[in-house]
Fold this sequence. Notes:
Number of domains: 2
Mean pLDDT: 86
CATH architecture of the largest domain: 2-Layer Sandwich
Number of strands: 7
Shape: elongated
CATH topology of the largest domain: Beta-Lactamase
Number of helices: 11
Distance between the termini: 88 Å
Strand order of the largest sheet: 4-3-7-6-5
Strand content: 15-25%
Low-confidence stretches: 19-30
Amino acid sequence: MFNELVINLLAxxxxxxxxxxxxxxxxxxxxxxxxLDEYDFYPFKLDEDNNLYFDLVKFSYxxxxxxxxxDNFAAQQLIIIGEQNNVQNKLKGSPKEQYKRIYxxxxxxxxxxxxxxxxxxxxxxxxLIGDSFPDSGMEILLHNLTNPAKALYHIKNNVTGRNxxxxxxxxxxxxxxxxxxxxxxxxxxLNIGSRKFKCTTIPIYRxxxxxxxxxxxNVDYNYINDEVRNSQEKLDVFLNTICKTDMVxxxxxxSKDEYEKALTGKKHFRDY
Length: 272
């Protein structure tokens, strides 16, 4: 009886150890690989005018390579890029079937779903910033760039008239090109007919996946410059909206030096 108990305990311990080691091996396999841009088939190139373009031929070659040679990092990034560039509608015949195979082999649906969940916190950031400056002519929105055809994921203080799931046009290529050139998309002007906007776009990168989203801030320049600036009543409403608070808390956010100056009468950062 005792010997049987010892044997059962040893067998259970061996099974647990095997399960643990197999889990570690599987985790290591899932986390191994290299970035897609380290391969020759990275599917983005710059043309002679220094514009970034998507190379469908190289993409298809990469699909074939990663079907034969496992690399989780590169394959996950390739699937994200494939969805961003709508390859399911661009590929035909055998290349399309191969893409479906690699999508299933590396669980593409889970990759896309996990990225959507990853962007939920950014959605909260957009909501809270937007709610801090309501009806101000300052729009803030979040794009989910794993699906550019339905990219607009969340929007506050809408001044552009777009709706949820509106497309992102060429935003993915533009941000990728700027990333390669180490350039920010900051404080740029857009003139569309009679409309004028001051904008900033902040790309969101995810470890292992690359570019997955973007936060965009769009200020309705004509509203603020023509309407608000030229009407005391509208200026008062605008400033009241900006300065409005919903609660009063007892917290100190000043440095020690600024705190001491505030106690002796300093009212704002330019009160010298």
